[in-house]
Design a protein that fits this description.
The complex is a heterotetramer, with two copies of chain A and two copies of chain C. In chain A, strand 13 (256-259), helix 10 and strand 14 (289-291) form a beta-alpha-beta unit. Chain A is 38% helix and 19% strand. In chain A, 75% of the residues are buried. By secondary structure, chain A is α/β, with parallel strands linked by helices. The model of chain A has no long low-confidence stretch (mean pLDDT 98). Chain A has a seven-stranded mixed β-sheet, with helices on both faces. In chain A, helix 1 packs parallel to helix 7, helix 3 (60-72) runs parallel beside helix 4 (91-98) and helix 8 (210-225) crosses helix 12 (312-323). By secondary structure, chain C is an alpha/beta fold. In chain C, helix 1 packs across helix 2 and helix 1 packs across helix 11 (318-341). Chain C is globular, with a radius of gyration of 22 Å. Chain C contains 13 helices and eight strands. In chain C, the strands form two sheets. A six-stranded parallel β-sheet of chain C has the order 2-1-3-4-8-7. A two-stranded antiparallel ribbon of chain C has the order 5-6. Classes of the chains: A alpha/beta, C alpha/beta. Chains A and C meet through helix 2, helix 3, helix 4, helix 5 and helix 7 of A and strand 2, helix 5, helix 6 and helix 12 of C. The complex binds thiamine diphosphate (TPP) (2 copies) and magnesium ion (MG) (2 copies). One thiamine diphosphate sits between chains C (103, 151-153, 181-184, 211, 213-215, 280) and B (29, 58, 60, 82, 86, 89).
Chain lengths: 324, 324, 394, 394
Amino acid sequence: MAMITMREALNQAMREEMKRDPNVFLIGEEVGHYQGAYKITQGLVQEFGDWRVRDTPIAEEAIAGVAVGAAWVGMRPIAEMMTFNFALLALDTVLNHAAKYRYMSGGQIRCPMVMRGPSGAAAQVAAQHSQSLESYFAHVPGLIVVMPSTPKDAKGLLKAAIRDDNPVIFMENEVLYNVKGEVPDEDFTIPLGLSEVKRTGHHVTIVAWSRMCHHSLLAADILAKEGIECEVVDPRTIRPLDEAPIFDSVRKTNHCVIVEEAWPQASVGAYISDRVQRECFDYLDAPVMRVNAPDVPMPYSKVLEKLYVPQPEKIVETVKQVLA
Amino acid sequence: MAMITMREALNQAMREEMKRDPNVFLIGEEVGHYQGAYKITQGLVQEFGDWRVRDTPIAEEAIAGVAVGAAWVGMRPIAEMMTFNFALLALDTVLNHAAKYRYMSGGQIRCPMVMRGPSGAAAQVAAQHSQSLESYFAHVPGLIVVMPSTPKDAKGLLKAAIRDDNPVIFMENEVLYNVKGEVPDEDFTIPLGLSEVKRTGHHVTIVAWSRMCHHSLLAADILAKEGIECEVVDPRTIRPLDEAPIFDSVRKTNHCVIVEEAWPQASVGAYISDRVQRECFDYLDAPVMRVNAPDVPMPYSKVLEKLYVPQPEKIVETVKQVLA
Amino acid sequence: MPKKPTPAKTRSRSVPARPISAPPKTSAGPARKSQGAPPLGRAEALRLYRQMLMIRRFEERAQQIYVEGKIGGFLHLYIGQEAIACGIMSLLRGDDYFIGAYRDHGYTLARGADPRPLMAELMGRSTGISRGKGGSMHFYDVPNGNFGGDGIVGGHITIAAGMGYAIRLRGSDQCVVCFFGDGAINEGAFHEALNVASLWDLPVVFVVENNMYGMGTSVERASAVTSLHERGAAYGMTHLPCDGMDILKVRDIFADAFARARKDKKPTFVEVITYRYRGHSMSDPAKYRSKEEVEKWQEKDPIARLGVFLLDRKFARPKDLEAIDSDVSLEVDGCVKFAEESAWPPPEYMYEDIYVKTPHINWRAVENDPAWERSLPDDRIPVVYPPHVSTVKG
Amino acid sequence: MPKKPTPAKTRSRSVPARPISAPPKTSAGPARKSQGAPPLGRAEALRLYRQMLMIRRFEERAQQIYVEGKIGGFLHLYIGQEAIACGIMSLLRGDDYFIGAYRDHGYTLARGADPRPLMAELMGRSTGISRGKGGSMHFYDVPNGNFGGDGIVGGHITIAAGMGYAIRLRGSDQCVVCFFGDGAINEGAFHEALNVASLWDLPVVFVVENNMYGMGTSVERASAVTSLHERGAAYGMTHLPCDGMDILKVRDIFADAFARARKDKKPTFVEVITYRYRGHSMSDPAKYRSKEEVEKWQEKDPIARLGVFLLDRKFARPKDLEAIDSDVSLEVDGCVKFAEESAWPPPEYMYEDIYVKTPHINWRAVENDPAWERSLPDDRIPVVYPPHVSTVKG
Ligand SMILES: Cc1ncc(C[n+]2csc(CCOP(=O)(O)OP(=O)(O)O)c2C)c(N)n1
Ligand SMILES: Cc1ncc(C[n+]2csc(CCOP(=O)(O)OP(=O)(O)O)c2C)c(N)n1
Ligand SMILES: [Mg+2]
Ligand SMILES: [Mg+2]
């Protein structure tokens, strides 16, 4: 077990899979000679060359389209979105092409591609650059959507995503790139659609992924000091959703809080809440509660940004509310 | 009160508002000389000319961008998407520009535009042309999203949308274009964000909008014969959501079914379910149930398409389940 | 440890993987001089005549049964443009790829697909080439490199570049043909795709079928430059026009384009001038153009033109051509019969062909999701039907 | 009946509505011959020198306090490109519009905005020109037609076309300037926007500031054609290059472009050749280019060049230029002081400026939503600060 950052974990996953399978290649803005806008692809162009690590013009629809076309004819592209905010420009390619051609062709086509990059709020990059748009992908049949919270999860899930034959949307979080964690030394993968209980407890179930999983664990520490034991479930993959561990936990704790960095309406958290209230109806002692970003764009000023991103304090408050 | 189709109602709304305000203009593919792909804009180019009824190249990002730019400098554009499936290509323009510039500029900019067109399943137009993507817009702060079910609502809400100073996404349903209904003869508007109880009942609350409101009313008729009285609430505007009438109804009926034409995950219906379970927790005798399209793309074959679109029978079944 | 499904083939059977070699250097040499296509011999000329006629009769019948309500949704007919698909496909290699938009019947027939599963697809039957789930706009025949029909105007153009990119990565000498319309050329995707195709030297031939209208909008009302191929200059790409009503001219121009792709790894942008005889789709009365205009174009009919060529060359006698026509009509009858006798897709089809069953999924999480539960471990090659036996001696 | 808020003005104060007249016919006449800009007199030359220096010093200070942690997020500096914004703005009319990308400090200063709210914006204060909610990438000054900074590469290009469309609808002779970078030119939005601008004769001047790199990617690695202005030909649009390091040349070229827009209602596409001295943003060490390359460009420095012009023409003596510099530095000190003394935005700012309060909303439905509750009936003009009084006699 080595202690490495999520940045290193992601880099290792890509390097190992590119070594393992000559059909794997990487394409995106500044992924090559610039070593990646966030240095996730550091060193890869030196090792694999310009064709397997392709710098592109600023043209997201082309990046996605090239990945889809290559995947359809047997390659395994990894398309990096410099940030997922820009993936909106490629959304049609993902939703109407990557996710649908297998179906429309009666099973003749497969699209073994990964689209990855940072998502969510960074530090003061304001409204257009601080969005959590995972709901747009989680809404779509045909896609798999991964949002890892630890270096180990990031590496194991990215390797599985690259090997998998379905289109996988792999959303990282810029703020977590420098977070360190233990990662197995040997080759390993983590199955897509497998949630993990990141902390056990019996008073309340907190469902949270990506950066919010960390905030929830911090909240759990604070609450533990007051004798409140939270169970933190990290779905890791938000589509398909591994529901059983969430339901099992809620049936045990009888309380549920869902923490999400995204806006509250028509979101992944809303869907989990809907599922929990139905599947755990007789077990719930209180309504499912949610913690989200406020339903507004992200402001630039640091004093406002701090109020915007769901903080541990807000989670603590909500847990107390649901237990009250 | 005249009996007219939703097509005529929409056409009247645009004609009246274009007469009323010289700043209103229409732009989109085939809206002019072709009289609209679905004939919603019939006769407008003859009456207002090529500049106020602008045929465009097939370029959705440009259509949306031209509308946004014109709105920012004081015009009131109506941008028609031939169908909302193609609006994915304009989503960045809507989400990162129409919905955010007022905020990022500290209130200096306003975007009084309407983006409208048909949404949802038509008849056998298959996976890429049969999508209900309203959740993508309902997710976004800064937007207003309208989905009318009757000619009267369509006319009153579209006129309000055109007069309003916020960007409004106005999603029609192709299957409803020929549906007739009574529409007041005098000039009228219906406030944005005002839901309407389309049928009163005391056993169960059904929340449904657009085409699904009709299927729900049909289901209610069937159930009434068996002595089950459904209250059908039509939000009409899905963002902002007029929740009070929904909650009031559920607190009366103690049962709730949400019917949605869209996919189930990360959707508007999921959010309404989340809100109801929280606000009506002590009143619910059963979990909130939902009826959705299956979580798959739309198939072409008519035998499969019929199974795909939520039918009244499915709603009846679900109501009985929630009452069981 | 999650329950593992039967391990999946990691590669699609329909698309054999090739070893990756460093991509060959692109000849920076002078632009190749035009060679044109090999002269058209009797057998090939007759085959192409029959093929164009097959497209024509197949679509005329489709139009007819659409009116009878046996086909639903959109139906976009290729009638008038047959020489383009047939001319281009006659030069393609078995391992080449192509992709196009929703007006896709002609491409698939010209690529040699059995017409019966196509008619079955139009009628939404389980024997359809896309199992009844795609319909008119979504014909695909992947074993033959046919990535078929896209309903999103311009949406497939960047995807064609991706197929070309894969070819460069593998170092093979395949090429890709990307068909789109004069309306699609104004979508941003066109711009992004042609830029990268030229920047990276991708072996893709971009074909704009300029049939004068995008739905009801004429080229003049949609494009600031109406000589569409000239847009290739903005990407430093070889670009030229081509008469799409003469299959011989089509073959000459594209033979060069394919050589440029295979040998020089250079893309080409060809504007094929053509005309659609029918409305945009069945719902379009085509009020935006005159009867005279349509007739003017019909005088250049590509099938009649090849017929004249066959007679001039003494490759066929008038009655041979009539025999071909009646033979084709017979075959079309067989298509409708085949389709009508075919079963409707069973309900479970709705949940199939969405996901690929792989060992990387936590099976427990999805076992109750019918879309996952009915997913299959690897790609299905569409059922192959016994070939139609022609009664005409080629 | 829903509760009605106080009725809203239906039009923004900052953008007065004009009556609609039928759009004037576009002169189909011959391309106008170059007139160039009026000769640069002493006062104007000194004003522009001071303005360019103001941008330079303002950004140098911003860079410095960014390092001190007083500015967060992205900071993209315009240093080296000052002649473009200043030259163009010196020709614009008060009622013209412009829009650009995130590298936007120069545009806003060149348009004559008080620099203090700009520094306050960088520091995220309530007195910022965007109330601390936009930051470096999002400067706007709508009362002066400044639609400022877009963080989405290429995202604003179609929007500029919309402003031009509004001008045509109103029949006014305003024009629009749209600034974007050499990287943005490969986005689909560029293609869609230039096509409609030319097709509909919109009075928009499209300016690609070719500073040789899009982040770390040189033009050669991003665009299949490196003489970027030539892409204008694909839209039948007048296109030409321009030396962006010489404000006199900039003025000459753009004076013609604006005449073409105002009188002929024709768009122009200008490629301004320039260079950014600093990295793409503060996080970019710019390893992709050599020290020599940067120095080579710095020898053409636009500010030094105008300085030489001023001395040659005897418009100023060396010590006048020094005085301007120290005066500018004083003003920049004042900006930082102003910003640091300004209050942080109060929490409620987070919920403001999202919606416009109008009588068309059912107020009961949104009364508990702080974003609606704190929305205002109409647009706010940013607070105006007493103008800085220069100590230099122009
Ligand atoms: C992105 C998108 N926008 C609009 C449409 C609606 N539409 C379908 S076909 C068509 C016209 C396309 O014309 P052209 O590209 O010339 O092809 P043709 O039909 O002439 O073969 C339009 C506007 C669509 N399917 N996709
Ligand atoms: C749609 C989109 N893609 C990518 C980015 C990330 N990005 C920000 S600036 C930039 C480079 C733009 O270069 P150029 O257009 O030349 O402008 P310059 O920075 O040189 O002024 C990139 C790739 C973005 N902000 N938006
Ligand atoms: Mg066409
Ligand atoms: Mg640049």
